[in-house]
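TICKET: design request
STATUS: open
ATTACHED STRUCTURE:
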């Protein structure tokens, strides 16, 4: 079994043309391009897909390999999945060669059938960067499922030996030239979507963070930024696909990152996130500008480098040198207890802002403050059941909507309704 650590980048034709010359800057070993053919299989009830597993036969020119990828972990663009590989003589399944214990209960192996395929040319370089060896693969071709197909043009960076930080640093160096953007969807995920009819994805509401049981404050902080980045990446794909309203969701994700840095700012000094905040400050006005086209901005150097900086900050735990032993002890403390304290503070500020009647001009002035605290509640409320949190949050969201839409007739009723709900968190003095 192996565990992949890789980063996928979608590339423009200009970036593809420039890649070989860029890689000359570092020691590398180039391999002759290969034709790759992948055939993906499914059961009639899509059981493997429901278990986040993928079965395929891959052809390397005239050689074949059968691969089973099992459920793994996605950390802000870095894919880590246990994988089993078996060499076979022909492109025909030979399932008996896999370890018997890897199949989930209820999987009917007799019902497997082809679902979709990918056909592309792969050109590879093994690059020495820092103290690591990183395989850079350029894939160009097509994904097809029945009569549906879409172009494939991506660059994958896979860590073969060394450190994830070097992989991210190499990606950042390649990003300087533009023409690249992060792609979280694997070839398989794109193929499955085609096989299901290529139905357009819908925008998603920002969900309340549900932290793992007994999470530390540090783990909660990581999960908070991961949630925002996931929301960002999902809606970036929709924006590029023509959904102009998805741009607002990208801005919502950036606002959530900012709020996370504020929430944890008492434990992580501002200088630990100075570079991140500076990058967000540069990028945000471009996203606000409705004349900027997503095909231009999302493939720009500063856009990708901002996302890579956030990923690197999380993966390398870049704040730790700034917090010291005592600060780390606080980060190791209970996230649930931290949330209760911070929820109380946010609620107190909202009560101070809205615990008296405002005139029609004063209400909209409070919208930015309300929006920030609702972002805080998104990150801090997940330890409690939805039936406890939803009435409280829904009432404040209703006030937010009334202010955003300038529904003056609803201001006062929404304010009173929001203030009428008792806190749902523990140790509250409110």
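STATUS: resolved
RESOLUTION: sequence designed for all positions
ATTACHED SEQUENCE:
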């Amino acid at each position: 079994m192996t565990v992949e650590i890789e980063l996928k980048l979608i590339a423009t034709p200009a970036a593809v043309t420039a890649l070989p010359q860029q890689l000359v800057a570092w020691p590398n070993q180039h391999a002759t391009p290969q034709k790759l053919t992948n055939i993906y299989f499914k059961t009639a009830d899509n059981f493997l897909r429901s278990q986040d597993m993928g079965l395929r036969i891959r052809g390397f020119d005239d050689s074949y390999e059968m691969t089973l990828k099992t459920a793994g972990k996605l950390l802000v663009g870095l894919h880590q999945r246990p994988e089993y590989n078996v060499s076979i003589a022909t492109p025909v399944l030979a399932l008996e060669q896999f370890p018997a214990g890897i199949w989930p209960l209820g999987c009917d192996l007799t019902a497997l059938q082809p679902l979709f395929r990918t056909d592309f040319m792969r050109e590879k370089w093994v690059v020495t960067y820092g103290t690591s060896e990183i395989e850079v693969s350029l894939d160009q071709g097509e994904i097809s499922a029945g009569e549906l197909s879409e172009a494939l043009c991506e660059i994958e960076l896979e860590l073969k030996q060394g450190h994830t930080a070097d992989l991210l640093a190499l990606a950042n160096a390649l990003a300087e030239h533009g023409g690249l953007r992060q792609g979280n969807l694997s070839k398989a995920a794109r193929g499955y979507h085609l096989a299901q009819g290529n139905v357009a994805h819908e925008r998603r509401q920002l969900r309340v963070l549900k932290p793992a049981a007994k999470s530390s404050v540090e783990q909660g902080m990581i999960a908070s930024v991961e949630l925002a980045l996931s929301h960002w990446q999902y809606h970036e794909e929709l924006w590029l696909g023509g959904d102009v309203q998805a741009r607002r969701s990208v801005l919502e994700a950036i606002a959530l990152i900012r709020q996370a840095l504020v929430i944890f700012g008492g434990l992580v000094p501002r200088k630990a996130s100075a570079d991140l905040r500076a990058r967000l400050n540069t990028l945000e006005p471009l996203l606000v500008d409705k004349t900027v086209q997503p095909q231009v901005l999302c493939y720009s150097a500063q856009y990708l480098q901002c996302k890579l900086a956030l990923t690197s900050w999380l993966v390398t735990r870049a704040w730790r040198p700034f917090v010291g032993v005592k600060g780390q002890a606080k980060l190791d403390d209970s996230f649930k207890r931290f949330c209760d304290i911070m929820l109380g503070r946010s609620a107190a500020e909202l009560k101070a802002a809205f615990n008296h009647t405002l005139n029609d001009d004063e209400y909209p002035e409070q919208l930015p403050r309300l929006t920030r605290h609702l972002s805080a509640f998104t990150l801090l409320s997940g330890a409690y059941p939805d039936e406890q949190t939803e009435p409280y949050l829904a009432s404040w969201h209703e006030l937010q909507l009334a202010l955003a839409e300038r529904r003056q007739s609803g201001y006062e009723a929404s304010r009173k309704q929001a203030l009428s709900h008792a806190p749902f968190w523990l140790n509250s003095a409110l």
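CLOSING REMARK: The CA atoms of residues 171 and 317 lie 18 Å apart. The chain has three domains: 2-195, 217-331, 335-419.
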